[in-house]
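Bench notes, afternoon.
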Amino acid sequence: MAPVRLFDCRNVTDRDRGIATAIEAVASGDLVVLPTDTVYGVGADAFKAWSVTALLNAKGRGRHMPPPVLVGSRHTLDGLVTRLPQQARDLVEAFWPGALTIVVEQAPSLQWDLGDTGGTVAVRMPLHPVALEVLRATGPMAVSSANLTGEPAAVTAEQAREQLGYKVSVYLEAGPCPDPVPSTIIDMTQEIPIILREGAITIDQIRTVIPNVLPPVGN
């Protein structure tokens, strides 16, 4: 069994080596752990079905809980959807890169299998230089929080390694997450947008951009 590789991205040399190794690992279909602006994520090439399956298995999840997709550029979003509502574009303009995940209808032509998505995909562009550098090289990645299902989210790569171990090929350490609050998720597939999960971006902030957004069910 190959040794797990952890790179300290707070060191310039280790950062460059780590990012290059992570990019190679993703291209090979391996899993990597990388920092984001919320919590650490475990990621796979979104277009390699076996890699996405490995990600779900590593977390102990089934296909009924498909992972979100992270992108390294706002422009990438246009290639993932058939049509992007204007309100979604306004949210992206206001909060990307950042802790906002939008659920949109995916383009039927996409050759991927993220699980039981019902024709939708949850997309986010994170505000973290290491994550963005990796994503701009790999293209869209399926990324979920780097922890076993039911366990606390990892706020360092070392914490992620304690939970995921050899299931992941490369770990990129960038220190503790400064504000480990999950992203806010908004469903943009309905006529009136609805917040599925309120996280780092509050409903009041969202309403400065799209005033008609509905709060989470039960609120």
